Amino acid sequence: MRPLARAGLVLALAGLAVLGVVALKSERTVTKVAIPVKAGGLEARYFYLHEREVRVLVEVIPSAASVDVEVLDLTQYLRLTRGEPHGHVYAIRGTNGADFRLHPSRGVYFFVFRNRTNAGILVRLTIAAEGLERGCLKVGVALLVLGLALAAVSRVMRE
Amino acid sequence: MGRLSSLIRFEASRLLRFPLLEIIVVLAVFDSFRSYMSVSLMGVAGGAPASLIELKLLRMAFYAMVHCPFVPLVYAATTSSIAHAISSGLMRNLLSFPYRRREVFVVEFLVAFTAPLAIFLAAYLLPYPFFYPHSVRVGPECLSWLLAAILSFLYVFSICLAASLAFKAPVPSFMSSVSVLYGVSFIAAGMRRSPVLRFIPPYCFSDFIMGPADVCYLVPSSLLAIAIIAACYVYFTRWLEL
């Protein structure tokens, strides 16, 4: 087999392997954590999110209490830790519960909870991810197309 | 040097013939993306600066590489083609050319060991910036994980090479390599709580990567692999009858 055609075949098969993994990993995954936040305190947790549709549920216990919720990416979180002005991916102030959707890029995200009340609270955080990983899907398709293109070029050159 | 490079080219084209290269690439890419997409990384942000998060993901990539279930299959297939060369008379023909036995052995080792290793390293490390799209800092700990991964591959290769030279036929060589390697893995998995486990591959390598195992736990498996390869070298260069 000609080297170009073989390289095309290898790339196309690698693309199919990636697409296979994307299909296998498209099931719904749920992560649940309970986060205690002291009175007047701030708690942050980081999560690695894939490029899938993410639904976030925040419950505050006791329900009469309230909390500020911020979702930050890595750059925004580093700005926050340096005390600099920072943007956010999502933010809501003074809530006793939230239910929102994120369309994250792949990477680490920080969920920051600020308790402005005088009593400690417990935040129950549920993160559910579902759907196909869009970035990996693009990689798989790109490898497949590139592989097929190389195979076609090799065939044209031979003819 | 040109003589050896032509031997390397010949052996590379023989060992990575269609469809072996394609199978290795598909298995490596499949397992790499499967492990990256299974990552569930979370923690308390206050105690974990960005560099620690980044290293956790890299550590997981090396861990997945050491525990990849396809590595024994790949090395059993590449070394069984060495057994096939012996049984089919190709090795005798090769040695009738002006190549010394030690040159042939070194070239077989270089190609059969490094080609799958390079493919697996590329499959696991090239997607890392894609899955962690932030700045990456490579420190000495990353090199130690890389060394542990290479030693784990060397261990698998040594067992497969010994089986191929012992049986000198592709099917028994493949079956015995796979049986021994998966057998050791299953036995080791069954004794998960035992302190002896820290010395048994692949856990000695993965425990070193994930911590808290010390470098001394790598020594027995690595020495065993080097001793087996040295024994194979002596057998191939002095006693192997073709």
Describe the structure using short key phrases.
heterodimer; A: 159 residues; alpha+beta; 2 domains; 4-stranded antiparallel sheet; 8 strands; 35% helix; B: 242 residues; mainly alpha; 11 helices
Topology:
The complex is a heterodimer of chains A (159) and B (242).
Chain A: H1 3-24, E1 29-37, E2 42-49, E3 53-61, E4 67-73, H2 74-81, E5 90-95, E6 97-102, E7 107-114, E8 121-130, H3 134-158
Antiparallel strand pairs in A: 1-8, 2-7, 3-6, 3-8, 4-5, 4-7
Chain B: H1 2-15, H2 20-37, E1 42-44, H3 50-66, H4 71-88, H5 90-96, H6 101-125, H7 128-131, H8 140-167, H9 170-190, H10 203-210, H11 219-239
Helix pairs in contact in B: 1-6, 2-3, 2-4, 2-6, 3-6, 3-8, 3-10, 4-6, 4-8, 4-9, 6-11, 8-9, 8-10, 8-11
3D shape of chain B: globular
Unreliable segments of 5+ consecutive residues of chain B? none
Side-by-side strand order of the widest sheet of chain A: 1-8-3-6
Average pLDDT rating of chain B: 90
How does the helix and strand content of chain A classify structurally?
A: alpha+beta
The radius of gyration over CA of chain A amounts to 22 Å
Low-confidence blocks of residues of chain A: none
Evaluate the radius of gyration of chain B: 19 Å
What is the correct CATH architecture of the largest domain in chain A? Sandwich
